[in-house]
Specification:
Blueprint (H helix, E strand, L loop, with lengths): L14 E5 L22 E5 L11 H16 L3 H24 L6 H8 L1 H14 L1 H13 L20 H11 L1 H9 L12 H14 L3 H7 L7 H19 L8 H16 L9 H8 L5 H7 L4 H18 L15 H12 L2
Helix pairs in contact: 1-4, 2-11, 4-5, 4-6, 9-10, 10-11, 12-14
């Protein structure tokens, strides 16, 4: 959802219609009622949005085609429709919430933001696919004494690969001098892929925010099933970072970056219960983790009353399900739960 503020997909004539039963089920917290939007009999996806087309928007058109082709290969129209509807809904909600705080993106800011990733990713694709550009870029890298390390070319975006956008942007900054020289050569006709000074500045802020998603996506993209004790802290830390970026008063972040952060926060909250710790297993897994324990809750803003409540929940579950012998029962009013948790952990692993 964050990337959607910086990557425009133009509207296509084709629409996709699916039965509601074919799309992913909406997440609801305990006691939360469904909304009419959740129970629609039919969902319609219009691929992309209206966007003025001109010479400077060639990159947008080309990257749109590449992205839509990758999505079609996924063969799951239900999931695609549902995900895009979620993004659209939360984008609109974030824009409204931030407008109430006086943070509004003007049309010009939106226009330059939506060109960023099509230009960044589009140039990477050109350098990989067009022979004379590949050779030209390679020679420019070889001739530049400031380029160090093993990376010798721009990263190509893979629409279905996690963190691909971050890697593309990282490479763009790594080769910034060469990128600016290359796109300035008139005979190569790469003006449509040239970032303006404002776009470079905005890209720096975008890059910093994307780094917040690096650890969660690394965890989720591994072959092994991720552990709760890794997933929940990673998501919460990403959420905290997004809040800090949204509310940052020290740096001159553009309004659209702040709004994109708000949209990302809404998405994390929609698909997780860790913010309120409604699920006992989340609480117990973290409390019993040797390198986190109750200190993790304190470090992440839980009040003394909340921590006390968590302590009681952990002990109550232990006494109910694991204390098979009276000698193993734990006092529900311990003086130090960290010591108690260590005791429980040691027993559980004997």
């Amino acid at each position: 959802i964050f990337i959607s503020f910086f990557f425009k997909i133009p509207k296509r004539k084709k629409s996709v219609k699916i039965a509601a039963g074919a799309r992913a089920a909406a997440f609801r917290r305990p006691g939360e009622n469904s909304t009419p939007d959740d129970d629609d009999d039919e969902a319609t996806l219009e691929e992309g949005d209206n966007f003025p087309s001109g010479p400077d928007d060639i990159a947008i058109e080309e990257e749109a085609d590449a992205t839509l082709e990758a999505e079609e290969e996924d063969h799951d129209e239900g999931k695609l429709v549902h995900n895009k509807r979620v993004v659209k809904t939360l984008r609109e909600k974030a824009i409204q919430l931030m407008a109430e705080k006086g943070i509004v993106m003007d049309p010009e800011e939106e226009r330059i933001a939506l060109q960023i990733f099509p230009r960044v990713c589009g140039l990477g694709r050109k350098v990989h696919d067009v022979g004379h550009l590949t050779e030209r870029f390679k020679n420019m890298v070889s001739d530049d004494p400031e380029v160090a390390g093993t990376q010798r070319t721009l990263t190509r975006r893979v629409a279905t690969r996690w963190n691909s956008d971050l890697k593309c942007l990282d490479a763009h900054f790594f080769f910034r001098n060469i990128v600016e020289q290359l796109t300035a050569i008139e005979s190569l006709k790469l003006r449509a892929y040239q970032l303006s000074d404002d776009q470079w500045k905005m890209s720096e802020d975008v890059n910093e925010v994307l780094l917040l998603f690096d650890e969660p996506t690394r965890i989720f993209s591994t072959a092994e099933t991720p552990l709760i004790v890794d997933v929940i802290p990673a998501l919460e830390e990403a959420r905290e970072g997004l809040i800090a970026a949204r509310d940052d008063e020290e740096h001159d972040l553009s309004n659209i970056v702040r709004i994109a952060c708000q949209a990302s926060i809404l998405l994390i909250d929609k698909y997780s219960t860790f913010t309120n710790f409604d699920c006992d297993i989340y609480v117990i897994a973290i409390a019993m983790c040797p390198d986190r324990k109750m200190k993790w809750f304190k470090d992440h803003g839980r009040s003394r009353a909340q921590i006390t409540a968590i302590e009681k929940r952990v002990i109550a579950k232990w006494n109910k399900f694991y204390a098979t012998d009276e000698s193993l029962r734990v006092d529900e009013e311990p003086s130090s739960l960290d010591q108690t948790v260590c005791f429980l952990f040691n027993i559980a692993h004997i």
